[in-house]
Amino acid sequence: MKNKALIANTKDNVATAIKDIFKGELIKIELSDKIYSIEILKDIKFGHKFSLEDIKAGEDVIKYGEVIGGASEDIKKGTHVHIHNVESKRGRGDLKK
Amino acid sequence: MKLLGYKRENGKYGIRNHLIILPTSICSSETATKISSQVEGSVALPHQHGCCQMGEDYKQTLRTLIGLGANPNVGAVLVVGLGCEGIRPNEVAEEIKKTGKPVEVITIQECKGTLKTMEKGIRIARTMAQELSMQSKVEFDMSELLLATECGGSDPTSGIAANPAIGVAVDMVIAAGGSAILSETTELIGAEHLLIKRTANEETSQKLLKIVNITEQRAINMGTDIRGSQPTPGNIEGGLTTIEEKSLGCIYKAGSAIIQEVIDYGVAPSKKGLSVMDTPGEDIDSITGMLAGGCQIVVFTTGRGTPTGSPIAPVIKITGNSTTYNNMIDNIDLNAGKVIDEDVSLEAMGKEIFDEIVKVSNGKLTKAEILGHREFGIFRIGPTF
């Protein structure tokens, strides 16, 4: 069966959907010697990310083995990871005093 | 690796043989366009700048216009000015003339009106066009090729498929002695710490960090979250969440070569191999800067799809999103989505891109060229007064 999601790096805590994935699906991804088995809790559109583990508010979101932002709220394993629950750490003119 | 192209007087090689009608200001752009419309095969470069500019912004526009005229894909130049503008038409003409190529300059005020300017300009351009038409291609080495890399309308497939495949092709061009430019400083924010590990020296690393810092500060000074501008609404809709995520996917375009130097917008690299140019993330201004730096060919990845071309260099359009490829097949040349859908390796896709670079260099027209896409814009770093 073709993979429905990709993980860019073994350090990542998110995967990227390469097909539309629907709530309730069980996604299996093999990376190196690890097999991830994730129950999807919300529909994930092609190109969007879902979490591979529970991520607490304030923790780093990791893709490509690098920090791509911080969780702005608790993120459950298998849920959609995007602008509603991830903040960037760069270019934040809105935080300028 | 040998290619076929046009030898220029200064020893450089072009892969196209353009006659350009180059307005020095917004005031002469209409007239330049009208002259070009009467000379088959010529290209006008209308723009909105060239007067009431100051300081570094003035210097950047000046060197960009000169660099475009000096580009090896350009065989001859007719500079058209109003006569009173800040960018001096005679200065632009004299600087381009240093390449040895045919350059003429006319102004609307000296010619006494647009109709007389058009008459004079069309006659000059007609003679130039005929001369260029008699020029034959000769063989040249790939070491003379300078490749511009660009991404626009990115989505997550850009970082997974299209940009890494470009990176393979860039590595192949550099291995064959050619050179390439990575640009779009905004899209290095969040990934710069990776790039400084692969520079030729500390000075290059420091300059890279400096240009990223200046760009980020400029964004912060706007007082809002950069998200929404960068990444764009389309990037976000496609799944890119932050500028860090976008940048980490963008830098794959650079392949694995050492970064030899960091150059300002519109400046020609002084070293062979890979360099980084300080350009904005906005595609058209970015490409224009690299053309002014001497790039003869552009490889452009897109996730969401964009028709962008350029007036003086072929733009090879590549997507990593097969749906986008099928939807916009009229405008997109290659589908790197095969890496995701059909298990085609990045190496194989990179080879396909490299082969296309060779074919286009030798004369194959890209879709953007055939459809007449000549998007053109000069990056401004200061206001108009």
Brief summary of the model shown:
The complex is a heterodimer of chains A (97) and B (385). By secondary structure, chain A is mainly β.
Describe the protein.
The complex is a heterodimer of chains A (97) and B (385). Chain A has no helices and nine strands. With 97 residues, chain A is an all-beta fold. Chain A has a four-stranded antiparallel beta sheet, with no helix packed on it. In chain A, strand 1 and strand 2 (14-17) form a beta hairpin. The mean pLDDT of chain A is 94. Chain B has 15 helices and 14 strands. By secondary structure, chain B is an alpha/beta fold. The radius of gyration of chain B is 20 Å and the shape is globular. In chain B, the strands form three sheets. Chain B has a seven-stranded parallel beta sheet, with helices on both faces. Chain B has a four-stranded parallel beta sheet with strand order 4-3-5-6, sandwiched between helices. In chain B, strands 2-1-7 form a three-stranded antiparallel beta sheet, with no helix packed on it. The interface between A and B is medium-sized, with 31 and 34 residues.
